[in-house]
Amino acid sequence: MKINKILIMSLFLSSLAYSDIREEFPSYRYIFTEFNVDEKFIDNQEFKNFVQTHKNDYRKRFVKAMSQGELLVPTMREMIYQREISPVILYISMVESEFDPHALSRTGAGGLWQFVPRTGQEMNLRITSSLDERFDPIKATDAAVKYLYRINGNLNNWSLTTMAYNCGNECVNQSIRRAGTRDLGVLSSSHNNYIRDETKKYIKKVLLMAMIGENYLFKNNDRLGEMMHNMNADKITPVQVRSGESLAQMASMLEMNRFYLEKINAHLKNGHAPYVNGYRINIPTSKVQLFRSRYASIMSPNSNSKYAQR
Fold first, then answer.
1. Which residues contact 91 (CB under 8 A, 6 or more apart)?
2. Does 214 lie in the same domain as 251?
3. From the CB of residue 177, how many other CB atoms can be counted at a distance below 10 Å?
4. Are 124 and 190 found together in one domain?
5. For residue 37, is it within any domain?
6. Is residue 223 located within the same domain as residue 247?
7. Residues 129-159 pLDDT 10s
8. Rounded mean pLDDT of 229-251?
9. Residue 186 belongs to a domain
10. Residue 309 pLDDT more than 70?
11. Looking at 229, 250, 268, which one is the last position of a domain?
């Protein structure tokens, strides 16, 4: 399998020597710039140790995430680009959920962006007995971008914003006040208690995953990141359906595997649309024309609905 060959070659090359991470990950300059990290952080000994210890495991996680990201990743990337935010924030979702739309943590955080219920509701994601929009790829991504923008409006630094995504805005503000600095090397050091250990590790995880994913742009013999950019470009499009419409029936009508339709509609707990008028479910963009031609005939003849909209 091509993916496995790429991974094996990547792991082999990285194991030849305990290399300097500047040489192994030339992508660090781009990633650090996007996350507002001082370039000198690449020489931070704790970060270097973290990279050397975890790089092979994170390459495997990258491959796993890509295997789960069909339809999801192209859609999320497009939404992020449209909102004029750095595309590297996508790696926050990769670390959070490995692009598993059904992901649910032990603490109750759910979906691609792992919103806890309270934050999800604050971001206008509906949570009911039959519906949980934290698991909707489009609505959750839209909410995550808005949430990240809101945090960054206070912190004005994307690495600090990433840390706040893990532990909360006030958590990071308090750590800055205690430390008397915004320096990432100080805040993430194991030698102090300015911020919790989980968050110290979290920012390193995101930086490393992003360095792995973008390295192909800067290093000829590291092609792992191409998986994200070369995957099937098919995306997700929301379409309006009847009240209570069944996903099983929709999958049959669209001649697609029910598993994939449920995957991109993980927010529908009972396998059907809510019993409300005008609700939209997600279908592959490649199926929109088929949906229009077949579903229009079973909608009310007096309906003026536009059957598919971005």
1. 206, 209, 210, 213
2. no
3. 10
4. yes
5. yes
6. no
7. 999 999 999 999 999 999 999 999 999 999 9
8. 93
9. yes
10. no
11. 229
List, in sequence order, the alpha helices (H) in the chain.
Answer: 2-14, 21-24, 28-34, 45-68, 72-82, 90-97, 117-122, 137-155, 158-167, 169-179, 184-187, 197-214, 226-230, 247-253, 258-263, 288-295
Q: Based on the domain organization, do 274 and 194 belong to the same domain? A: no
CA of 219: how far to CAs of 48, 62, 242, in Å?
19, 17, 50
Mean pLDDT of 15-33: 83
Where does residue 130 rank: exposed (0-12), middle (13-18), buried (19+ CB within 10 A)? middle
Other C-beta atoms within 10 Å of 283: how many?
Answer: 28
For the chain, give the number of residues. 310
- Across the chain, mean pLDDT equals 91
In a domain, 205, yes or no: yes
**Count of domains for the chain:** 2
Half-sphere exposure of 71 (CA within 13 A, CB side): 21
**Range of the structural domain that residue 107 is part of:** 2-229
Q: Are 111 and 242 found together in one domain? A: no
The DSSP string of 186-252 is: HHT-TT--SS-HHHHHHHHHHHHHHHHHHGGGT-TT--TTHHHHHS----EEEEE--TT-BHHHHHH
Q: What tokens appear for 42 in the block?
A: 């690449």
pLDDT at 290: 96
pLDDT at 109 over 90: yes
In a domain, 123, yes or no: yes
The model carries a pTM of: 0.89
